Structure to design on (391 residues):
């Protein structure tokens, strides 16, 4: 930290942070991902990382210049800043002024906590983060390129968003609407409304009564940030719920959702007629597929799996897994079978036959129906351990 003199900063191989409060300064970050912090300035800054320059006007109306070499991240001021990025994937923090952010070719992150702001992500997958707002939630529409929130004087504060793909909301009630590309929305703890567009969207949430509409594409809800309980999801019915810290049920609405990520607690995940991906993580989960060709992934808990009809893929973790096999319901491809941990429920194990197939074993019912293909095992594993594997 250099205070108000004309300072020279040269970083090394690490991720360095340079703080300054005035003067004509020289910053060379060296290797690593390096940050210049102008928060202590008493006036706004204009930063251009492509040109390697920054400037501001002091209290005497004199221009003060800065040189920036190998700088990836910039913290602005509480005044009106203009922050222009390069091709390195920049992180910009603008604080309370009316700020203008222009990204470059990288995957940029723009964080702001107040003011009438302008965000242009440029190329790459770019993120706007509003989690530092302290008065209200954000209403945002990426298709229209607009957003707004309400400040402490109950006035609407407008935002402009161009070429933004990802958004972090607030701990209040947010409304996040996507566009035609693959969006990722993170809404935190308020009662949030998520509406996807034409892309394959991902909605992540950590609390509140939420509404998810995936729109077109193959869309995902992700609840792995829940910290109090598991989630119950039924994609066929479009419903979900979890229990909060007051032991109250918190409802979720799900429309046009094809993929779900559960929690590290005990989840119940039920699919629909689409090709679902259902991921249960590390709790003791019950996962039920639907009519589509589903992918079911488990963690290290004690899990019960019924993949439903269709040709389904089941990727097992290292817990105890019970898999229901039924004739006429399609067949399962089972990955990471472990003797003593993986069991199959069938109507009559004594009528089954087993067929070696390219390093896998086919489990075949008495009528010739293929029930499952189990990777990485030999036929003898099944014939020698019928009572252990089947029930």
């Amino acid at each position: 930290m250099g205070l108000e003199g004309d300072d020279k900063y040269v970083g090394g191989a690490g991720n360095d942070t340079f703080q300054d409060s005035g003067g004509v300064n020289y910053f060379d970050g060296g290797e690593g991902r390096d940050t210049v912090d102008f928060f202590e300035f008493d006036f706004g800054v204009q930063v251009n990382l492509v040109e390697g320059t920054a400037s501001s006007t002091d209290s005497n109306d004199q221009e003060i210049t800065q040189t920036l070499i190998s700088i990836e991240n910039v913290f602005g001021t509480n005044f009106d800043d203009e922050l222009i990025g390069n091709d390195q994937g920049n992180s910009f923090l603008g604080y309370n002024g009316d700020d203008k952010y222009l990204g470059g070719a990288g995957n940029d992150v723009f964080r702001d906590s107040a003011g009438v702001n302008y965000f242009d992500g440029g190329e790459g997958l770019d993120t706007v983060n509003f989690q530092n707002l302290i008065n209200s939630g954000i209403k945002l529409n990426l298709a229209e390129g607009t957003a707004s929130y309400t400040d402490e004087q109950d006035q609407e504060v407008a935002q402009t968003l161009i070429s933004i793909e990802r958004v972090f909301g607030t701990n209040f009630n947010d409304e996040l609407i996507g566009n035609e590309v693959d969006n990722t929305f993170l809404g935190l703890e308020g009662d949030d409304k998520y509406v996807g567009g034409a892309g394959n969207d991902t909605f992540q949430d950590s609390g509140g009564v939420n509404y998810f509409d995936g729109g077109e594409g193959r869309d995902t809800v992700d609840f792995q940030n829940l910290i109090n309980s598991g989630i119950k999801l039924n994609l066929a019915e479009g419903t979900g719920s979890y229990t909060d810290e007051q032991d109250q049920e918190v409802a979720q609405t799900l429309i046009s959702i094809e993929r779900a990520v559960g929690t590290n607690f005990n989840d119940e995940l039920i699919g629909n007629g689409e090709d679902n991906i259902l991921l249960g993580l590390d709790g003791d989960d019950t996962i039920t597929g639907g009519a589509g060709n589903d992918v079911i992934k488990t963690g290290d808990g004690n899990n019960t799996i019924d993949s439903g009809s269709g040709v389904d893929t089941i990727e097992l973790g290292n817990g105890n897994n019970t898999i229901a096999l039924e004739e006429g319901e399609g067949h399962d491809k089972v990955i990471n079978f472990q003797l003593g941990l993986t069991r199959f429920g069938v109507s009559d194990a004594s009528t089954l036959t087993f067929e070696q197939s390219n390093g896998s074993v086919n489990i075949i019912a008495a009528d010739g129906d293929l029930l499952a293909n189990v990777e990485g095992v030999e036929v003898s594993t099944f014939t020698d351990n019928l009572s252990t594997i089947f029930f």
User: Anything to note?
Assistant: The chain has a mean pLDDT of 96. DSSP finds two helices and 40 strands in the chain. The longest strand covers residues 63-69. The CA atoms of residues 290 and 369 lie 19 Å apart.
